[in-house]
Amino acid sequence: MTTHTESEIVSQPDCWRRAVAETPRDALPRPGERVAVIGCGTSWFVAQSYAVLRERAGQGETDAFAASEFPVGRPYDRVLALTRSGTTTEVLDALAALRERGVRTSAVTASPGTPVVTAADEIVMLDFADERSVVQTRFATTQLALLRAHLGEDLSGAIADAERALAVPLPEITLSAEQFTFLGRDWSYGLALEAALKMREACRAWTESYPAMEYRHGPISIAGPNRVTWVLGEGAKGLRAEVEATGGAFLNSLLDPMAELVLVQRVAVARALAQGLNPDEPLNLTRSVILPS
User: Fold this and answer.
1) Inter-axis angle of helices 138-150 and 257-274, to 10 degrees?
2) Rounded CA gap, 293 and 173, in Å?
3) Of 54, 176, 194, 288, which has the most beta carbons under 10 Å away?
4) How far apart are CA 116 and CA 84, in angstroms?
5) What is the value of pTM for the model shown?
6) pLDDT tops 80 at residue 287
7) Within a 13 Å sphere around the CA of 140, how many CA atoms are in the beta-carbon half?
């Protein structure tokens, strides 16, 4: 029987195409605005990737924050909230504080009729990418596809890479390794953080994540036999040889980093099922964190 998570992972190329085709022009940050992007968990990591991409595109200073740590008093032209559920307490609290201060807000969500729809000034609705699984897969990548398209990127290559990531056999070492370290550079560091989180959530794996150039500054000490160092996107020159010298496995397919994340999602589900875990409903997690008032 196919789990919801498996079905949602497979649907990602189609979701990305739809997000690109339906990219809104007015509800997202405008060029030149000073922007903060907030989210929790997966959405925070997507926010980090988008912040780097937006600045790299020359569209304005962009910061990313966990919603619980957002400095509400700092001046921004717009704050963009990312929230699949539309009910996350920390996001709603930040939006309420921003409304009191008169700061323009936008939100990307998958859930019509939830509090975020009225909490933010402008809404981008990605309900076609919503998920039945607690673990985020397609909503996370679809909102990033939307944001990349809004910055003017051509995502045809990324979509083709995602289809490749769904078709290739999973690397054998990933199904048995005892430890994973995910690395990224520039905008892919946010995706490395998300890859590690996905493995922890779905299959309770021992995972870490770092900027690729930081790996030599201590974390490489964990590399060794039956352990994987997995780079999403551009790596660090000479790092493969250094990892392999420890006996560890080094993975870096050079797919688009967002498509490489799809491959990691597949590994997480395969490992979960092999352990008798339900990837749709990970232990100790709920779809949304709603704190008591």
Assistant:
1) 180
2) 46
3) 194
4) 10
5) 0.96
6) no
7) 31
Q: Which residues contact 237 (CB under 8 A, 6 or more apart)?
A: none
| Residue 162 to residue 260: CA distance in whole angstroms | 7
Distance CA 83, CA 39 (A): 6
Cβ burial 200-238 (10 Å sphere, 16+ → b, else e)? bbbbebebbbbbbeebeeeebeebeeebbbbbbbebbee
Distance CA 55, CA 43 (A): 18
DSSP conformational letter for 285: -
Domains in the chain, CATH or no CATH each: 4-150 (3.40.50.10490), 156-274 (3.40.50.10490)
3-state secondary structure at position 1: coil
Q: How large is the C-alpha radius of gyration of the chain?
A: 19
Q: Are strands 249-251 and 122-125 parallel, antiparallel or unpaired?
A: unpaired
Q: Which two tokens stand for residue 271?
A: 């490992």
Mean pLDDT of 217-238: 95
| Contact between residue 18 and residue 62 where contact means Cβ atoms under 8 Å apart | no
Torsion 121-58-156-43 (CA) sign:
negative
pLDDT of 232 reads 97
Cα–Cα distance, 26 to 32 (Å, whole number): 14
Across 256-266, b (16+ Cβ under 10 Å) vs e yields: bbbbbbbbbbb
Amino acid at 219: P
- Measured distance CA(143)–CA(20) in Å, rounded: 10
